Amino acid sequence: MTPLQIIVLIHYHAIPRQHPECDSCGIQGAIDYLLNEGVIKRVDDGLEEYHCRYTTTTELGAAWLRAICAIPKPELVYVDKDGHIL
Questions:
Q1: Residue at 36 is within a domain
Q2: Cα separation of 13 and 63, whole Å?
Q3: Residue 17, SS3?
Q4: DSSP H or E run through 42
Q5: Would 77 be classed as within a structural domain?
Q6: What's the domain range around 63?
Q7: What is the pLDDT of residues 10-49, one digit of tens each?
Q8: Which long-range contacts (CB under 8 A, 24 or more apart) does 47-53 make?
Q9: What confidence category does residue 55 fall into, taking pLDDT thresholds of 50, 70 and 90?
Q10: pLDDT for residue 21
């Protein structure tokens, strides 16, 4: 998953409405990827216009975000040419 796809996933998890940049190629590509992977889903709100549909994360999308948030903060270490921590 790319950083842009993660940003779009976070957007739809927090705000189940149209992404403000949804007409850009990059954002639309990320939306298409996330829809195809089953990470976000369109929710019919009764409006026919494509951009008026609510979009939200699926259980898979919410689980993926929990996994991303559970990644520990990296620790900076210096190593010598043999791989020994200095």
A1: yes
A2: 11
A3: coil
A4: strand 40-43
A5: no
A6: 3-69
A7: 999 998 888 888 788 999 999 999 999 999 998 876 655 5
A8: 51/18, 51/22, 52/18
A9: confident
A10: 85
> Residue 26 is part of a domain; what is its CATH number?
1.10.10.10
Rounded average pLDDT over 48-74: 86
Handedness of CA 61, 62, 67, 70 (dihedral sign): positive
Per this entry, what is the length of the chain? 86
Residue 45 CA, distance from chain mean position:
22
Alpha-helical (H) ranges within 1-86 are: 3-14, 25-36, 59-69
What is the token pair recorded at 60? 């898979």
The rounded distance, in Å, linking the Cα atoms of 56 and 17 is 8
The fraction of the chain above a pLDDT of 90, given in percent, is 67
